[in-house]
Amino acid sequence: MKWIPNFNSSNSLRVIFVIAVFILLFLSSIAYKHNQDLNESSKLVMHTYEINIQLERLMSAIKDAETGQRGYIITRNARFLTPYIYSRDKVNTSFIALKKLTADNKPQQENLQKLFKLITQRFVSFENCLKYSDPKTYDKRKLDNHMFGGRILMENIRFKVDEMNDIEKTYLKKRLKIYDAEISLSPLFSVSLFLVALSFILLSYRQISRDFERLKVFNKKLLISSGLISESESIGKFSTWQWDLDSDKIDFSDNQFRLLGLEPKSFAPNKATLLKYVHPDDKESVAKAIDGIVDKKDLPFVYYKIVRPDFEVRYFKTTGKLVTDQQGSKILLGINFDITDEHLLNIELQERNKELEKSNKELASFNHVASHDLQEPLRKIQTFISRVSDADKEVMSESGKNYITKIESSAKRMRVLIDDLLLFSRTNTTKKEFIKVSLSELLSNAESELAEIIEEKKAVIRVSKLPKLSVIPYQVEQLFINLIGNSLKYSQPDIEPEISISCEKVNSSDYPEILEQSIKKFHKITFTDNGMGFDPQFKETIFILFQRLHSKTDYPGTGIGLAICKKIVENHKGHIIADSTLGKGSIFTVFLPD
Amino acid sequence: MQKNALHILLADDDEDDRLFFKDAFEEIKIQTNVSFVHDGMQLMDHLMNPDNKLPDILFLDLNMPKKTGKECLIEIKKTDHLKDIIIAIYSTSSSEEDIEDTFIQGANIYIKKPSDFNTLKKIINEVVTVNWHYHTSGLNRDNFLLRLK
Question: Which residues carry this modification: 4-aspartylphosphate (chain B) (predicted)?
């Protein structure tokens, strides 16, 4: 179906979208990971920092104890011993904190264990120093030894603390380095990925807006064309309906409702409503046709009547065709025509035709009466007169013989009249069978029909070549007989008649007033004679039935011959004209279509 | 030349025409036996009666009461022992339709009733003296309607 525009971009658009979404998902997962790493590293730094602080606290507590002890030893003032007494608790607190902080680190635990041992030894050394510095138990050598030992222990503790700090620092450094490596990889990559995603989105945005523009254009066109269709439906008195065979849904056009005499969309159509307004006479046949659609997938013309809600009967013609739309669903497209006007006109025409046929029949029976019943008594009059023998006439009076002659000529004239009238009516009523024949042949037939009078008058007939035309042969032959016969009859008494017949092809446009313009070419056949001619003022009237220019005593005739000619030419959609100069001759011109 | 008298039968309802016909046969110098029937029914009865001698030539009027000439023609041509009778249609009408119909039904010649007694004699003479075997074999639509030279 061509009328649905094809938006090819929709598939590629989908792909672009999916890619862009995946890129964005990827980017956000990377960002999340970064965040996690950052969090981890800050926690790690905090951890190291805390261990460091606790170790420093431990150190300073021991140092405080050392300083307090020294002050006491020198001054023997018990106030100097206060930091020493508290330092033990401080050391323990820090120690517990450190134990917790290094719980996940085995080497540090071991270090801490060693440190604890060293610190315990240091406090033992403190006790010893206090003991040997006491004046009661004073021992200079032992005091010096313990003081010195304490100093070494102190060095060891400091060393151990530094070692632990170093381990933490190294560990921190290592971890930070790993995070750094992870993070340093990404910025360029993620920026470029982001740019790719962005450009994809921009691209699809452009495509979408372009499609949107096209859609707008098509939408406008669709609106216009649907408007035009519904307009033309109401002008043309037709309507459309669509039957989706898959979903069994039926849609009526607005005009369908109007044709049914209803407001548009006044009910939801379905298979049953298709039949609802159909005239009871036609319901069965329409239902059959509808069933036929489903089988044959096609609906030939169906003619039926419908009854509108106001009981007005309208005549409908319906046809349909099965179409498959772009989505592959099968839709039966139906068209209804309201043919009421045509139907009524048709009925009227049929009636007129019947009347015409009747009057034609009457005419034919009149012909029969004329040809048979009127001729019968006439023939008998003539035969009986012919039976009056010469011997009978001998014994008759002069006047009696005269009357017999007059009866004879009247009867003869009656016969000619009847024959001519019959001929005239037959040019109308007999079947008109057009056959392609040579006019030359018909003309020579006409000449042989007139051979007697031609010989008698010593007439000369000159004929140029005549064409082959599609004509009613016996009528054209009659036409030639009448025209030549006419020329022979009205020849000049002392001059041998000369008739020349010529033919040429002419364009109908050259004779706009007399020729049928829908036919382009005509054959113009001219009959020229040197007869007595007639007054040109009669050139129209001589073709009228029973019109005579001469008295019947001078020139016997019925006044039908030329009327027959006119009729014959008209039967051929041609034209005949006459012209003449009195005393010089006449020209009869016949136009016959090519 | 005929050895025996020709048997002629005229089927015509018109008394005057039968009279003309009879007179004409009397005046021509050919030995003939002329008999008459007045309508189509009588004609068929006559022909079907085995006591009657079959005519050599049957002159058949078309416009007859009870049974028309055309009906008789069809019936005769359908009947085995009658179909070889020479049939001359003898009618006032000269309509194309009648001529065409009777030709198709197998009549041998079509005569339009003349309006002159001498012409009638000439026609009868012509029809009676024609060699029908020869004429029938060369019969066509053009020479079916009798035209006197």
Answer: 61
Inter-chain CB pairs, A–B, below 8 Å: 39
Domain residues for the domain of A259 are: 237-338
If you measure CA to CA, which chain B residue comes closest to A423?
B95
Which domain range does residue B40 map to?
A: 6-144
| Boundary-marking domain end, from A206, A226, A247 | A206
User: Do A469 and A422 belong to one domain?
Assistant: no
Q: Which of B16, B93, B95 sits opposite A380 (nearest CB)?
A: B16
The Cα B37–Cα A438 span in angstroms is 48
ipTM of the complex: 0.81
CB < 8 Å to B142, chain A: none
**B142 touches A at CB < 8 Å:** no
Side-chain-side CA neighbours of A105 within 13 Å: the count stands at 19
**Calpha distance A228→A253 (Å, rounded):** 13
- Per-residue pLDDT of chain A (594 residues), as tens digits, is 444 555 555 677 778 878 888 888 888 888 888 888 888 888 888 888 888 888 888 888 888 888 888 888 888 888 888 878 888 888 888 888 888 888 888 888 888 888 888 888 888 888 888 888 888 888 888 888 888 888 888 888 888 888 888 888 888 888 888 777 766 656 777 788 888 888 888 888 888 888 889 999 999 999 999 888 888 888 888 888 888 878 888 888 888 888 888 888 888 888 777 788 888 888 888 888 877 776 777 778 889 998 988 888 999 988 888 888 777 788 888 888 999 988 999 999 999 999 999 988 887 777 767 766 788 888 889 899 888 877 788 888 888 888 888 888 888 888 888 887 777 777 776 677 888 889 898 998 888 888 888 888 888 989 888 889 888 888 898 899 999 998 998 888 888 899 999 999 998 888 888 888 888 889 999 999 998 888 888 888 888 877 777 776 667 677 788 888 998 898 888 999 999 888 888 999 999 998
d(CA A509, CA A589): 17
Does residue A376 belong to the interface with chain B, where contact is any CB pair within 8 Å? yes
Task: Decide if A375 touches B, using CB distance below 8 A.
Answer: yes
Quickly list DSSP for A16-78: HHHHHHHHHHHHHHHHHHHHHHHHHHHHHHHHHHHHHHHHHHHHHHHHHHHHHHHHHHHH--G
Q: Nearest CA to CA, how far is A363 from chain B (Å)?
A: 15
Bridge partner list, B34:
B8
Our count of domains for chain B comes to: 1
CB contact under 8 A, B92 and A383: no
Q: Nearest residue on chain A to B15, judged by CA atoms?
A: A380
What distances in angstroms separate CA A540 from CA A310, A471, A530, A566, A579, one per listed residue? 59, 25, 20, 11, 9
**How many domains in chain A?**
4
Other residues' Cβ atoms within 10 Å of the Cβ of residue A95: 18
Residue B149 is assigned to a structural domain of this protein: no
Residue B69 lies in a domain: yes
How distant is the Cα of B75 from the closest Cα of chain A, in angstroms?
24
| A520 touches A594 (CB < 8 A) | yes
Residues 542-581 of A with CB under 8 A from B: none
Which of A372, A387, A411 comes nearest B92 by C-beta? A372
* Chain B (41-100) residues lying within 8 Å, Cβ to Cβ, of chain A: 63, 92-96
Q: Do B116 and A371 touch (CB under 8 A)?
A: no
